[in-house]
């Protein structure tokens, strides 16, 4: 793990940090004198200067900018770009075709956060089943209530005038070590360590969210816990971090820190926690026919009928969901996963599903990283990397290998130097809302750093910073759109990178979601009009 070389407070920012600050979203209160007093009249977004940002979609059509080389690669529909100052970085614009984007976006909401995959919520609440479906329950409407939604939500549907009501987690966040039995499913919490100025007290914190401190989820006594969920605590939690709500991310192998306010921001956190043994979370049903408008409520109702909690695999071109791809065969939750009904009710003490969905930051597929031992825990329960993601990464790495054969030297891949040696088995799924950022970091704890990372962007546009081996090196700012892929290979594996900004539609110059395939009014599309998902696929074994 490389040193965190951000300068201490009071000194100049590193070049990387300066770039983060340049592109970060800042909102300022506009003040005006009213009645003899200064009053806040509006929240103003600081203008964003995109003139220094590389947009290789425009270069696809026109001239290639200095320091960037365009290649035609067999097997790639469009051009592929490499960078003089970033050896090992390969940019493949629009490499994920629209139908596959659509499948991945749906899977990212329906499947990937399902237990036994872990998410940032595990540290506070334990495994949660059917988050997306529960968040959609209020939209399920009277039909859903009639069909049995009220069986789960109690009186909420009725109180909601037939429109359903928000579902709440049955258990609440715990803010301290469990005070005696009974322990609960949601009690993994490590007391916050104070963030010290410029120090490495929390060097695993990468994400910040504007105003996150004001957006804390409700804290209530952990009561009314589902009997079946008691006694389960996630394993392997290193206890080093600060799994406060919001910006924690797995940071597998990451070194970095970002704090919107610099020192003393107190928002550092890291939520790494191992989970139990491998299982899966879906029954492998496919639903990629564009009929997503009602699919979430249908999935919910299906789930209510069969008790699987909506944890259905919906990903995979061949009709198989992620779980099916993982060879699970039918049941839709892992051994340690509570059912949908155990998780959600109309009157639980916890936050609403919508709140939790907004705060979903990451999910991990494949082996979990154990921060206490600083290694991947291969034995702990996890959701295997779906075959479709492994296939996507393998195909793209093979395309990149073609550059190698053309003498461009962007790899090696593995000791053999052949793409065939590349066997991805893990991914981090990052969920970004407007205002989120991922601070500069290295991904450097995988066993074999000669294995590339394949990083696919989905949903809203973002700015990506690609730096060098130290933060002192000024990064290149690039615009990423839904469907774009970056491959970090060779020397680029040891370089700082991060995401300082998700482009809100105004900044992006769009009304949002232009790049989403087959735009429709489905809830998934609505989510991705402003949100972004990144899936970074890795080989960790
Ligand atoms: O969101 C992105 O584009 C970058 C993600 C990343 O760097 C990571 O997950 O390590
Ligand atoms: Fe990364």
Offer a quick outline of the entry.
This protein is α+β, with helices and mostly antiparallel strands. The chain is 21% helix and 19% strand.
Q: What topology emerges from the helices and strands here?
A:
Blueprint: H1 15-23, E1 27-34, E2 37-45, H2 56-61, E3 68-72, E4 79-83, E5 89-92, H3 98-110, E6 118-119, H4 122-125, H5 131-136, H6 141-153, H7 156-159, E7 168-169, E8 207-209, E9 254-256, H8 295-306, H9 322-325, H10 340-343, E10 344-345, H11 353-358, E11 362-365, E12 368-370, E13 375-377, H12 387-405, E14 426-432, E15 436-443, E16 453-459, E17 462-466, E18 476-480, E19 485-488, E20 497-502, H13 505-508, H14 523-530, E21 532-538
Antiparallel strand pairs: 1-2, 3-4, 4-5, 5-19, 6-11, 7-10, 8-15, 9-15, 11-14, 12-13, 14-21, 15-20, 16-19, 16-21, 17-18, 17-20
Helix pairs in contact: 6-8
DSSP helical segment count:
14
Largest sheet: 9 strands, antiparallel
Kindly provide the radius of gyration, computed on alpha-carbon positions and rounded to a whole number of angstroms: 22 Å
Number of distinct beta strands: 21
In whole angstroms, the N-to-C terminal distance is: 18 Å
Q: Provide mean pLDDT, rounded.
A: 69
Bound molecules: 2-oxoglutaric acid, fe (ii) ion
Beta-strand portion reads 15-25%
Helical content class: 10-25%
Shape assignment: globular
Spans with pLDDT under 50 lasting ≥5 residues?
150-163, 177-215, 218-333, 412-416
Strand order of the largest sheet: 3-4-5-19-16-21-14-11-6
Structure classification: alpha+beta
């Amino acid at each position: 793990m490389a040193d965190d070389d951000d300068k201490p407070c009071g000194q100049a920012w590193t070049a990387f940090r300066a770039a983060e600050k340049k592109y970060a979203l800042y909102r300022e209160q506009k003040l005006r004198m009213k009645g003899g007093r200064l009053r806040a009249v509006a929240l103003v977004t600081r203008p964003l200067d995109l003139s220094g940002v590389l947009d290789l979609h425009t270069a696809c059509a026109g001239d290639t900018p200095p320091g960037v080389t365009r290649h035609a690669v067999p097997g790639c529909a469009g051009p592929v770009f490499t960078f003089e100052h970033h050896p090992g970085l390969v940019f493949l614009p629009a490499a994920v075709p629209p139908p596959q984007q659509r499948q991945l976006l749906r899977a990212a909401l329906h499947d990937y956060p399902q237990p036994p995959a872990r998410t940032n919520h595990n540290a506070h609440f334990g495994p949660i089943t059917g988050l997306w479906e529960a968040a959609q329950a209020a939209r399920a409407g009277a039909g859903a209530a009639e069909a049995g939604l009220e069986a789960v939500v109690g009186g909420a549907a009725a109180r909601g005038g037939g429109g359903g009501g928000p579902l709440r987690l049955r258990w609440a966040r715990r803010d301290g070590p469990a005070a005696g039995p009974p322990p609960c499913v949601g009690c993994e919490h490590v007391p916050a360590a104070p963030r010290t100025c410029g120090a490495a007290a929390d060097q695993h914190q990468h994400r910040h969210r504007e105003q996150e401190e004001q957006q804390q989820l409700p804290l209530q006594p952990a009561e009314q816990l589902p009997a079946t969920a008691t006694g389960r605590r996630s394993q392997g939690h290193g206890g080093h971090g600060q799994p406060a709500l919001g910006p924690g991310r797995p940071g597998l192998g990451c070194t970095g820190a970002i704090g919107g306010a610099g020192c003393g921001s107190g928002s550092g956190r890291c939520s790494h926690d191992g989970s139990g043994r491998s299982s899966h979370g879906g029954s492998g049903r496919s639903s990629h026919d564009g009929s997503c408008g009602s699919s979430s409520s249908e999935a919910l109702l299906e789930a209510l009928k069969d008790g699987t909690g909506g944890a259905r695999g919906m990903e995979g071109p061949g009709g198989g969901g992620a779980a099916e791809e993982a060879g699970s065969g039918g049941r839709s939750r892992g051994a340690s996963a509570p059912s949908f009904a155990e998780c959600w009710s109309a009157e639980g003490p916890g936050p609403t599903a919508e709140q939790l969905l907004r705060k979903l930051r990451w999910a991990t597929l494949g082996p979990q990283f154990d921060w206490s031992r600083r290694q991947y825990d291969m034995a702990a329960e996890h959701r295997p990397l779906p075959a479709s993601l492994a296939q996507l990464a393998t195909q793209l790495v093979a395309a990149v290998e073609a550059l190698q054969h053309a003498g461009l030297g962007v790899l090696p891949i593995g000791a053999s130097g052949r793409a065939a040696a590349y066997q991805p088995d893990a991914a981090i799924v990052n969920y970004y809302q407007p205002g989120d950022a991922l601070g500069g970091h290295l991904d450097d704890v995988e066993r074999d750093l000669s294995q590339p990372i394949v990083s696919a962007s989905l949903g809203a546009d973002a700015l990506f910073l690609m730096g060098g081996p130290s933060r002192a090196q000024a990064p290149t700012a690039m615009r990423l759109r839904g469907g774009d892929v970056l491959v970090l290979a060779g020397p680029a594996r040891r370089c700082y990178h991060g995401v300082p900004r998700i482009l809100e539609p105004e900044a992006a110059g769009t009304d949002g979601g232009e790049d989403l395939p087959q735009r429709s009014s489905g809830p998934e599309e609505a989510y991705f009009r402003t949100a972004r998902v990144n899936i970074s696929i890795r080989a960790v074994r």
